[in-house]
Amino acid sequence: MRVLAALSGGVDSAVAAARAVEAGHDVVGVHMALSRSRAQHRNGSRGCCSIEDASDARRAADVLGIPYYVWDLSEEFEDTVVADFLSEYEAGRTPNPCVRCNEHIKFSALLDRGLALGFDAVCTGHYARIVDVPGTDGQHRRELHRAADTAKDQSYVLAVMGPERLGRSLFPLGDAPSKDAVRAEAAERGLSVSAKPDSYDICFVADGDTRGFLRDRLGSRPGEIVDTDGAVLGEHDGAYAFTVGQRKGLGLTRPAPDGTPRYVLEVRPEQGQVVVGPSQLLSVDELTADQAIWLADDVTAEEWIDVEVQIRAHGDPVAASVRRRREGGAETVEARLATPLRGIAPGQSLVVYRGTRVLGQATIAEAHRGAALPA
To answer: Which parts of the sequence are annotated with region: Interaction with tRNA (predicted)?
Structure first.
């Protein structure tokens, strides 16, 4: 196959590309330039896709002996990932930019360009497995599964890709036993990125100050911090800077009557209000999610099924009953959690699993406290 290998400049994508070459594919490396800002030239790789990373990606391609290109996707990145990040916070929701980057950039803009140029698939360094399952009709069904190394598993952020893009993807690191093993393999292959630190934080927030980034982009929008009865406890400079479950940074000088800490329970951007209260009010056991994308074609609409769900990229799965809903052309998901979870915010991804297999995902719209929860 003709394979387009996404080279981020890190060790994972370099080893994934090396494995694709070793498997006999015709591989071309490409680095995605997602920002024109020189502020993203960092040492130690706080984020990803910096100028430093582009140089590391080029060196990896040279070692592998494959063609290498840099594609400027900064406009698409700004118009999709960054714009979504800002609009979601502005609407009082908590987005996951890595999910949106996989959806709009790595498995949309990159894959679409690759297919237009005659490539058969995109190869990335994500930790996830693709399993081909033979069907009764003689056709194979592609399933997305958790990686062998559950500590590095990234199936949560890949669930948004959809079945068609899954069919055009390669994840060579899905069976890697550990990140240490991948680093050792990189060193054996002569890849200089073998000891490069992992990237973290939001790649387009160069200094890691998310609140400052939002303030610079969205401006000052003063409002009130209130309790569940509507009593004003303090003021803020922008409701977008708060998220459900937050405890620190509230700036309140008056303690709760019983002396317990207060947490953000709700963000109301239209009223400019941030609602705070005790921790027990953060527990929820019923979720409603929209913008659903299903990878499994064997999940029947309107039927409750027993599954596991994951709410955060590095969260633990929780047993749940889930129902797929179709209303008009929209796909929604309802979930009843066997164990209540705290601090669930609208905008987070709800990913549905059956064992290691990813069935689908949706974006949380509402979180509820069911009758089974104590008041």
So the answer is: 152-154
